[in-house]
Design goal:
It contains 8 helices and no strands. It is mainly α and 191 residues long. It is elongated. It starts with 16 loop residues before the first helix and ends with a helix.
Length: 191
């Protein structure tokens, strides 16, 4: 019987060519993410010196094709290092994405609340907001809602509309600060 080299189950042939390509494309995508970060954040990621040098070189190139070629070279330099060299950077990028996702979701919630305050069911939204934040200046909020509605109806610049969003943002920030203080107090009592 004629056996090929793939018939030997004892021999480790390494990753397939397709897997090698997927790995290379993953490193290229990671290199692209690093390039999109501000320079100040890259300095804090604890990257190898040759990778930092190539990131700097790639940033200086303005031609699209030359930049693409240099980005591929950056990925090649990164593949020379093990995954351990980029563990901190991958973790930081993952945390940044999660934090950005949470901030975006919070912003959407504030916009939805503002729209509810200006909508047909504004009394229910106002009641919910007062229940969540009993110390809110109700008179000021009602005044802002009236101004925002008149601005919307009169095609005026949305100054009060923006002020409502800023007010909601301040309330959310105060909630986060209170939650952080509550967590800190809870941690102290656990010890």
């Amino acid at each position: 019987m004629n056996r090929t080299y793939t018939d030997d189950p004892e021999h480790d042939y390494g990753p397939s060519r397709s897997q090698q390509r997927r790995d290379a494309l993953a490193v290229l995508a990671f290199a692209t993410q690093l390039m999109e970060l501000p320079i100040s954040k890259i300095g804090r990621l604890n990257l190898p010196d040759d990778v930092l040098r190539e990131i700097d070189n790639t940033r200086r190139i303005t031609s699209h094709i030359a930049r693409k070629r240099q980005l591929a070279f950056l990925a090649k330099v990164m593949r020379r290092h093990g995954d351990d060299a980029f563990a901190d950077a991958r973790a930081a990028l993952g945390e940044n994405k999660e934090r950005q996702r949470q901030e975006t979701a919070a912003m959407h919630r504030m916009e939805a609340m503002r729209d509810r305050l200006l909508g047909d069911d504004s009394d229910a939204a106002m009641g919910q907001l007062i229940d969540q934040h009993p110390g809110i200046d109700r008179q000021h909020l009602r005044s802002l809602i009236r101004q925002a509605r008149s601005e919307r109806d009169g095609n005026k610049p949305p100054r009060a509309y923006r002020e409502i969003f800023q007010l909601l943002k301040e309330l959310a920030s105060a909630d986060e600060d209170a939650d952080d203080a509550g967590l800190t107090d809870g941690d102290d009592s656990a010890e």
